[in-house]
Amino acid sequence: MESSRPKLLFLCFIFLASAASTTAHIAEYDEYWEKKAALARAASQAAYNPNPESVANTFNADVHREMDKAEVEHAIMNSTRRGLRGRKKKGGPCVATNPIDRCWRCRGDWNKNRKRLAKCARGFGRHTTGGLAGRFYVVTDPRDDDMVNPRKGTLRWGVIQNRPLWIIFAKDMIIRLSEELIVNSNKTIDGRGVNVRIANGAGITIQYVHNVILHSLHIQDITQGNGGLIRDSETHYGLRTRSDGDGISIFGSTNIWVDHVSMSNCGDGLIDAIMGSTAITISNSHFTQHNDVMLFGASDAYSPDALMQITVAFNHFGRGLVQRMPRYVTKREYSPDNVWKDWSWRSEGDLMRNGAFFVPSGRDPDKSTFDQKDLIKAKPGTFVARLTRYSGSLDCVRGQPC
Ligand SMILES: *[C@@H]1O[C@H](CO)[C@@H](O)[C@H](O)[C@H]1NC(C)=O
Ligand SMILES: *[C@@H]1O[C@H](CO)[C@@H](O)[C@H](O)[C@H]1NC(C)=O
């Protein structure tokens, strides 16, 4: 989180020097990928915010403001005896407590105005608009049987298009990906209103691209792909090695927003964000039954990861999870102090349970750009149940608040 200028310049330099070694799963690192990687590096540097505290501060302020409004609404609803207990029942009042959800969920017209979602990201991924500039594309066919020339109507056909697209689904479906689904830039995959499961096959790869929204999906039981020839855009396909079995793999990519996604039991990580990926928000999602949940940055030696800025908010880390919730590069239990003691780690208002503890390190984040009175504290951990109550993929009904 350090942001002093000389250091940043130094890191950019190292970034360029190590660029050639980043070839994961690309069997033929051809001119096409070289160019794509170079553009992605430039995008990542441009997206990096040298003043991360201001982003966190704005985010905290939003949370306070929207929660206060929600409390007032709840009180009004209470007084009109409409009842608010438990999860929203069909036809019951819609309750949204966090600023992302309050941006769209309780509007009865969400399905007529799906692109409103593009205004709703908060935190480091807040500029993510996905397929906002594009047309709608409706997935009608759950099959995934041609990796090089996917047929129109499939999810794979939609994600490889070069132009922006807002991808929705005609009906409930289970999609078993034969190989990793390589998503191109400027896409939204919007599963609201239907039940879409990406399951029992390969996972989603977001590699050297920008501006992708994944919304209201179930991603589960993901396994390694075999690799082979796979198309990644209208204009290119190439040979890939075996994929890792990550649910969502974010690799050298920028402006990515994952919201209301339910994930469990993948072969590798549920979500990994590595190789200089930045400007990411992972929100309102629900994670269960998994060992290595989230990895941000695979190696301390890879310095472009210093540009990595990720907001993880309003997620529910549920049953059966083992570790990495998330892991940020260094595994502190195993590493000597000197590996991490200069990193700025802070915990604010957290609620520690079952013997959990937190060891702060490094210097206080640079708050000099704020008057102390303008500094907004995070909502304390006691609010977590209220803020994460509707996490995971939603059962939205068209024409009703969700
Ligand atoms: C609404 O009513 C419930 C049950 O009577 C109470 O626990 C809750 O605090 C009330 N909420 C508000 C915001 O007044
Ligand atoms: C994505 O959209 C932006 C804004 O319209 C555009 O500048 C950019 O070139 C697009 N990216 C790709 C890879 O087409």
From TrEMBL:
It comes from the Eukaryota. It catalyses: Eliminative cleavage of (1->4)-alpha-D-galacturonan to give oligosaccharides with 4-deoxy-alpha-D-galact-4-enuronosyl groups at their non-reducing ends. Coiled coil: none annotated. Binds 1 Ca(2+) ion. Required for its activity. Pathway: Glycan metabolism; pectin degradation; 2-dehydro-3-deoxy-D-gluconate from pectin: step 2/5. Belongs to the polysaccharide lyase 1 family. This is Pectate lyase. It comes from Zingiber officinale (Ginger). The lineage of its organism: Eukaryota, Viridiplantae, Streptophyta, Embryophyta, Tracheophyta.
